[in-house]
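Dear support,

We are seeing what looks like truncated structure output for some complexes. This example has four components. We would appreciate it if you could run it in full and send us the complete token output so we can diff it against ours.
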Amino acid sequence: MAFPTRATHQQTRAYNAALVLRALYDFGPISRAGVARLSGLTRTTVGEVVNDLVGDGLAREIGRGPSTGGKAPILLEFVDGARHVIGIDLGELVFRAALVDLRGQVQRTIERPVSGLTGNDAVRVVHELIEELTRGARATLLGIGVGTPGIVDASTGTIRRAVNLDWNDLPLGEILRTRHGVPVEVANDSRAAALAIELFSSRRRNNLVAITVGRGIGAGLVLGGELFHGDGFGAGEIGHVVVDDDGAECRCGRFGCLETVASATAILLRATEAAAADPTSPIGLRATYAAAATPATRLTLADVRAAIDEGDEPVRRIVVTAGRFLGQMVAGVIGVLDIEHIVLHGSVAQLGEPWIDAVRDEARRRSLRLLSQDVSIELAEPIGDLVMMGASALLLTAELGLAAGRAA
Amino acid sequence: MAFPTRATHQQTRAYNAALVLRALYDFGPISRAGVARLSGLTRTTVGEVVNDLVGDGLAREIGRGPSTGGKAPILLEFVDGARHVIGIDLGELVFRAALVDLRGQVQRTIERPVSGLTGNDAVRVVHELIEELTRGARATLLGIGVGTPGIVDASTGTIRRAVNLDWNDLPLGEILRTRHGVPVEVANDSRAAALAIELFSSRRRNNLVAITVGRGIGAGLVLGGELFHGDGFGAGEIGHVVVDDDGAECRCGRFGCLETVASATAILLRATEAAAADPTSPIGLRATYAAAATPATRLTLADVRAAIDEGDEPVRRIVVTAGRFLGQMVAGVIGVLDIEHIVLHGSVAQLGEPWIDAVRDEARRRSLRLLSQDVSIELAEPIGDLVMMGASALLLTAELGLAAGRAA
DNA sequence: GGCGTTCGTCCAGACACTTGACAAAGGCAG
DNA sequence: CTGCCTTTGTCAAGTGTCTGGACGAACGCC
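Here is the complete output from our reference environment:
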């Protein structure tokens, strides 16, 4: 294990500066004295730091606030548009990129389909997306964040393995850094999404597990205010834990992985079977209707949701079963980590109550009551494309320290 | 969420002082210049800190080392006996306490049976143990560490719930602190043991999962060099995650918890059944022999181990089944955390190869190969009563910063 | 014995936080 | 309206701690 590095005065300053910035970000508008009270720093120090921030354009004075018995405070606010960040979601179907301000507000989004794109061609598309967005940027570009499927060495930005794009040990971070000359952060999509939820949702939490359930299943862990990556940057790869002993073969080669029983793909597969088995059922009618329009059209999760609302009991059971398998995994997470906030997102989340109730029920049923009684399992607030936002959040955290939770 | 606290110069100093101490602890004997190279600090700063440490008796010069082309370095070593720590293991059957030096070497151990002891009577026994040990102490007492079953608020040392001792929200930390006037750390036994393995075993790891398998099952997580407690101090409570859908009732009231299928209790119960089913089998003969000596005598894990060595296939299958259930949980841990070092300990560890091979096999079979290929699942090195040692380690970490893994 | 190297220490300087003081700016009582 | 109290923001002085340069001491090598 590498020996830790020393502490210096510059680090102290950087830490306290980040603290002030974060106070403005989370609690602004606020006065210098207010920040001092919040952070424990003296008014003097806060004043110095704030002046630097105002010089950098990251904060500005917005006039006086109400007096509380003395001189009226000069209120400061964080300048959301002081910098821009490019957040990129390298999805399985499309690459989506956005110009995002420091508050996570999307200014502009562009996307490209990725059908069949691999290797260097895929990298070129990423370059194009970045260049198109930078042309339209008004504020200084703080950096580029990338969320991608697969396992990513987030310390260097090297993508160890992304099957669908045929990327192996691709140093995407380094490539983008040299080409575009700004800081770059790359991380797995599920982890990025977790950071987005941590940073941009209304309540900040110290510990958080965010689980994506879409075509694949993955989790992102925020522990102590920071993303946890694990020894091999594979923390949260829960989609390929075997949960069904008699399960079907997974694309990873094993049988009965969580993905084979709880992902969108798994649900749609079983819904399609149910439709074929009973063409007069709600799901059957929807399948017929969809196929009538365009023969190759397949059922969607919206169809599944609608079928349940129309009282299709077999489909409801399919969804509940999928939810229960996920709940089994969640119970394990609760037992291992005792984290109170578990957030679910991804396409399957649109199934709503029938699904999440099954997840909750099974998670509670299978974990120690003393632990699970305080656990909240919720759907993510709708704050946009979580992976893209999370990619941006990676940068805000790395460059501005906006999410670091702990003291030094 | 509470706002983080500011960084000060004192913290910088404390951090760097801990860094120097740790360099001496882990890499000593070493010169001031060597510590400077290791830590990145200047020789000046290291010299100052070292002089303080020598003044406190925590380090001493032990003469000159070999020259590497210039002035021979003055070698410094950590003084293991500069302070003593009392480590206490509040086991289910006995309370065991030891006077331990800073290297984890046990100087003296005493214990008391706890049969039927509850409430304040149990607290009184803890006091007695401490007082008996302090009477014999030569070096200054650095503090008291306690490992206990149940859920413990480690930040205050309050035991939320320990069923067997009938303790509910007992502020044991506060009680011991005021009575004995030294720093006190209290934590769950499994977490304490994990810290002992992290601190006292030959290789230090940044991330570690240590799983106790005895009468109960629990885990301790070391993440980023520090114990992870979770939101409700219940991280690692894996014994009561339901893993067997058709399982037996657990003492926690649910059915099919990991403890009901993988604990020492579970294994012995099934071994006893096997013995009764076939009195001529190795395990049957052992049961008969044991009962002949004293009628109430029960089978032990040593009997189980011996029976397997004697070729008792049904008993081997019992052990393998227990190991596989644990492996299932370990697979989940690997998927969720991607931690490469998993250490098993507790009484069941004495079953050796047949058991741990089953754990390994099942864990690998059920987790993503890309993750599990680098995972090592091993038995703990035999370094004594892990809970007692861990209780001591809690203090070394809290007071001397000997385990903190990260930079500021 | 001279030279280069390494070690430990001393001293000056830089950096960043703290403390105390003060002017500016507000509310409130009389 | 005046005087007093409170709060804010800044300035100057002080302190703690790291850094960097320099120097004597100690050692190996030629």
